[in-house]
Amino acid sequence: MLFSKFVALSVTLGLSSVWAAPPLQNRGCATLRPDAVVLSAEKSFRARKVVPSENQRTAQPPIKVEISLRVSMITGPISFPLQVYWHVITEGALGNVSDTQIADQISVINAAYASTGLVYELAETQRIDNSTLFHKVGPENVYQDQMKTALRKGGAYDLNIYSVAFDDDENYGLLGYATFPWEYEALPGDDGVVIHYDSIPGGSFYPYNLGHTLTHEIGHWVGLWHTFQGGCGSVGDSVDDTPAESSPAYGCPVGRDSCRNLPGLDPIQNYMDYSDDACMEEFTPGQTERLTTAIATYQRSFLARKAVTPSAHRKRQTKAPIKVYFHVISKDGTPRGGNVSDSVIETQVRTLNAPYYTTGLTFELAGIDRTVNATLFTKAGPGSVWQTEMKAALRTGSVSDLNVYSVGFEDEDLKNITGYATYPWEYEVNPQDDGVVLNYLTLPGGSFIGHNFGHYPHSRGWSTGSASGIHSKAGAKVLETVWPILLRRQAPA
Q: Where is the signal peptide (predicted)?
């Protein structure tokens, strides 16, 4: 079996009597595939490669409520989410990750894969108290075979995730591993991803606890190699737009160039490298093209399902995305003073798109401006003269455009505020006041623990007229209430 294996090398080698996640130094691969195996897999992939047909590009798959995210290779909308079955393996309370952590992890992978058009939807969470499996499951061993045989659900297009401890002698320090799509035909019961439970959001495996172990492993599950596959050789990872890389990157070594005679710096920010979670932030268009082709070839997606009539909500939506104008207010122009980077803002917009996919809404970053003003940064709270001054100076666009302001809320009366927003029906009376104001520390990678994954869709829910935000399981009554408001907010297609 071919598999990907993420390994975290511990600074300390011992285990205490009460297990706790050790401090981690590096993430590495314990089982790089031999060149002959890679070449064989690639030869088979090229021979069987399926480029989505025109019918597949335009067919409407079965849906709940559709999404209009797009993939570069497919001109029609990818609108059927991949179903996720999560199997939580525990020893009593140890490893029993919460529903909130799992929801946060699903949001992380949806944000990471937003540019590819792939959407993941949690179908079921199953909890199994089994000490042996929890501690001993590892790649290719009898315990993982037992676990997957007993628990795996669905078909080739369904993603099974198993969270375990990897803390016996053989697997100690492992973060995760996955199967490749071309393996499904021979070993369907083995298909899926296994990760360390402490690598998901809220876990203690710093600096690998923001959820990108799963992002990386799913990359293998949809057919991507490591960016350093093949080193500085001519084939590499079989993707044209990922620069060659001689070996894995650790930490976040900006400017690293391990293949100096070849174009480009090492792709250390790519999800298929081994950098720290906080450093990872992109898939390339070439990777998107490859995984899309792999999905079509190995039936990992909606392409394997029959088409049905689009939903009523699809017929009611407009095609135009909501433009997002992001206004960064900082205290002194530094990152610590609130001057968040373009990449953080882009990640935030991708994060915003993920939970709104069932509503048919899409958000598109239209502009970023930056203002250094310590007073506004500190004092722009709801109803204050400072927020009025800020919005009067900066707001852009019309009723159909979303203006987002990031500030510090450092005034004593504002320190517990994560964000606030206007309602859509307030626009007619006070259009200049329209928009959402956020604490910059709640953006992805911020330090507002528990609220730093970028889930301001709650505030955006106020802005669309939903009393508690619109979540991925939004019901018909919420949508029926919100749609007339959204149609007023959106510009004609």
A: 1-20
Among 36-45, 69-78, 238-247, 424-433, the range scoring the smallest mean pLDDT is: 69-78
Nearest in space to 322 (alpha carbons), one of 348, 355, 360: 360
Q: Is 363 helix (H, G, I), strand (E, B) or coil?
A: strand
Which residues are the active-site residues? 217
Q: Are 220 and 271 in contact (CB under 8 A)?
A: no
What is the value of pTM for the model shown? 0.58
pLDDT tens sequence across 275-305: 999 999 999 999 999 998 888 888 664 433 3
Contacts of 5 (CB under 8 A, 6+ apart): 29, 30, 31, 139, 174, 176, 177
Distance CA 267, CA 239 (A): 12
The two structure tokens encoding residue 3: 């598999």
The DSSP bridge partners found for residue 446 are none
Map out the domains of the chain with their CATH numbers. 78-224+283-291 (3.40.390.10), 322-458+471-481 (3.40.50)
The dihedral through the CA atoms of 330, 399, 347, 449 has a sign that is positive
Q: Choose between 426 and 373: higher pLDDT.
A: 373
- What residues have CB less than 8 Å from 55, skipping those under 6 apart? none
pLDDT band at 491 (very low <50, low <70, confident <90, very high): very low
DSSP class of residue 288?
Answer: H
What tokens does 329 get?
């207010």
Q: Compute CA distances 73 → 51, 109, 330, 379, 442, whole Å.
A: 8, 21, 39, 47, 34
The sheet carrying 363-372 orders its strands as 363-372, 322-330, 402-407, 436-439, 419-421
**Is 18 a residue whose pLDDT tops 50?**
no
- Spatial neighbors of 232 by CB under 8 A, at least 6 apart, are 244, 245, 246, 258, 259, 261, 262
Distance in angstroms between the alpha carbons of the first and the last residue of the chain: 48
How do residues 98-120 score in pLDDT, each as one tens digit? 999 999 999 999 999 998 889 99
Distance CA 199, CA 167 (A): 13
Q: What is the pLDDT of residues 171-219, one digit of tens each?
A: 888 899 999 998 888 889 999 999 999 999 999 999 999 999 999 999 9
